[in-house]
Amino acid sequence: MAISKGTTTGLVAGLAALALAATGCGGGGSDTDEPTSGTATGAPIIIGMDEDSTGPGASYSIIAGKTIRVAVQDINDKGGVLGRPLKLVVGNDESDPTKVPAVLQKLASQGAKAFLLQSGSAAVMQAKSTLTQLKLPAIAPTGVTSTLVDPPNNELIYMLANTTADWAGVYCGAFQAANISKLGVLTDDTTTIAALNKALLDKMPCVTLVATEKGAANASDLSAQVARLKNANPDAVLVTSVGGAFEVLAQNTLAKQLSGKPRFSLASIGNQPSSWKLANAGALDGLIFMGSINQNNPRTKALTELLKKKNGDDYDITAFDAQAWDSVQLLKLAIEKAGGPDDPAKLNEAIQSLSGYPATFGQENFTLSFSPTKHLGADGLCGLSLIEFGADNRPKGPWATYQPPCTA
């Protein structure tokens, strides 16, 4: 199905309270969201959402879950899907893989015809075998690990965004464009980042690593690490961390001790607006991060306006919002193409036929497509954007020196 171009993380605790108040769902449980049906009058189409609202994945799952609810309500306000309102039933696996089967089975018993898997990667991995047993399709809105959609048991699971495997090529393009040949790395000590560093840094032959410095995720001082980086005289510094307090401390220290040195970071800092306010004045100025939100994309602009109306003018849109929105829209399109939600095999075939969907994240020309052998939606590298921070410690827009092309 070709779609026309006109179709269109303190933070965790605060958002967790909002999410729990909205959904009423605790660890391992499930509940029913009751969006109004708008002008849709038929029997509701039930979508199950496995949302980690209290566990390790809550920092991003709550953000995405909130926008999933906005998307469902928006569809209902516009007549629903085939004249029928969408209805969410919600469970919480706490990013615990052992809880996933029970959560999905309960959601299915409540009538879910498809799932949105908004949880941690390990939990989503466990969901694959359960989906095969239930014979129901699912989308993982914010997944970025390709193993989520790799065999085995991948026939019924889909994801949208570029994976970490694409990041190395984008960084290399950026370093070459900026004449950066010597790189220093400042990293935290989490297992998540250790695995990412291995996958990422080993695939960047475009630069020589002249120094790698590590600090504890709860570090209170990184001066010694940054001093050693300075002595190594890199052309640029890449910070790899899960974000939060470590990232802020790293950027504060780098801005003070290595003023004027180009700095790059992962996506974490761009998707954690609460962290921006904790940075020293101007400490993020010039920092370039791997992002997916590009305000040159008109669909991103439209979603930004909608979310500001819903959440207030100071709301900062993240990739989690856009990917959540697009996941709901893709399910809507698949249900329409299948003629309804009740035949799971037909619905799964309809998802696999979606092609050329203009995404709400990424660059203006970025699209999403699926097929029987392509369960990762990203069409090329331009689902990623290199975004630069301004002097006000807020992202000011795409980095002018380099942007990923839409070709792989």
UniProtKB/TrEMBL annotation:
Keyword Transport appears in the UniProt entry: yes
List the InterPro entries: BCAA_transport, Leu-bd, Leu_Ile_Val-bd, Peripla_BP_I
Origin organism lineage: Bacteria, Bacillati, Actinomycetota, Actinomycetes, Micromonosporales
Q: What is this protein called?
A: ABC transporter substrate-binding protein
Q: Report any Pfam family annotated for this entry.
A: Peripla_BP_6
Please state the span of the N-terminal signal peptide per the UniProt entry.
1-21
What family does the entry list? Belongs to the leucine-binding protein family.
Keyword field: Amino-acid transport, Signal, Transport
Q: Could you tell me which residues belong to the region Disordered?
A: 26-46
UniProt domain Leucine-binding protein: residue ranges: 44-367
Q: Which Gene3D superfamilies does UniProt cross-reference here?
A: 3.40.50.2300
Superkingdom of source: Bacteria
